[in-house]
Amino acid sequence: MLGFLKRDLSLQMVNAKFYLCFVLAFAGLAVFTDFAASFASLYLVIFSGTSIMSIFSYDEANHWETYAAAAPNGRRAMVDARYLLAAGIGVVVFLFQLVLGILDKSNQLETALLYAGAFLLYAAVILPIAYRFGGTKSRIVMIVVVAAFSALIAIGATSLQVFADGDPLAILGVLPLLALPLGAAALLISHRISRHIMAVKEL
Amino acid sequence: MEYAIQTKGLTKDYGSFVLENIDLTLPKGTILGLIGENGAGKSTLIKCLLGIIHPTAGTVEIEDTVGYVPDECPFSDVLKVSQVAAFLPGVYPGWDSQLFDSYLQKFDLPVDKKVKELSRGMKMKLTIAAALAHRPRLLVLDEATSGLDPVVRDEILDVFLDFVSDEERAILISSHITSDLEKLCDYVAYLHKGRLTVQGPKDELLAQYGKVSCTRDQLSAIPHDILVGKREGSFGCQALVSDRAVLKRALPDAAVEPATLEDIMIYTTKGER
Hints:
By secondary structure, chain A is mainly α. In chain A, 88% of the residues lie in helices and 0% in strands.
């Protein structure tokens, strides 16, 4: 599985420099100006979500799944590697937000948990779809999922602003604390589904 | 296991296309050439053998360690050869980095270049190096030499001959380039519309099959059971027969020449009976 993970990481690094510039720029703004720190992490979540999907496009372009399926335990290993990558990105998102909080001298734990959980939930939804339908078709689904997420967040945020005067996160109570475990649980279930999809998939 | 590959009644039913009841054997230490027209089922058969698709019926017994060379380079264009060399040891147990490096040197493959900067021939050499570097017992190549220039093909064919020289390993190669297969293979299997129509030792097949140029009267005298295919023109006729000795007895005066694999392929596919 480590070989598959190394390959995925190598492909991630192709676009990483471009994404890193954006994220660092927003991080700089968050630390040195009034720009909200959470935006930098939000961009990191969006970029990560896009870049994990781009690996499926690379897979399709070179018929990698067909080649990998002929390797020993290839079907299982390629799925395991990609989920490990998704989990790793979730950890990076969480740590990134925490570090921004330390630099910004603000408590970002709840936001960090919320963003990392949201990313894992997104990965849990999109990965089986990508395995089932391939990179190109699942991009449409990804847009729908992101739009649905955004709408939910917008509606939620507006509702919170109405009901919670000044501190929207306070009304959520323990929900941010549950986001990460919920996302992790969803990712585990999703991993089993993807493994099954790939076990029976005709390549 | 006596054979590197053994299938019995292997069937894959797609509805519109059926790979039907394939009984195929590949003895160790030999090379089997799989020929057939486009859409005959060569890739489907190879994918069934490698577990890439699941057969509808039948059994497949195959060596545990298989090196697979598809018709296109499976490594992403944006990666460098050195990055490919870095991740492959984690994909294949038994990966031999020194052996891989030696193939890179032998094939003149630059490690610091991206895959997209390599020519088609170089990409194919990289894929072959990757397939060989984990020391497989069986090498399976699906149209891997198509589109390569004769010099590169010749270089690769030498590597294949070296691979089977220990009599323990075997190669299955599908190709349209029948001249390569005539040079390389010990056995030949011909797939036509999903069925294995001809199979056997190449030298025996080439010794048995014959191409005859004759008149219409002579053509009608050829025993039907040895007639594989025929072509009738305004100046004469040509036919492919599956037994030159039987033909000689039936038509002692006819001009018979040995058939090539290409003749067998063309007459079986296009010739009338």
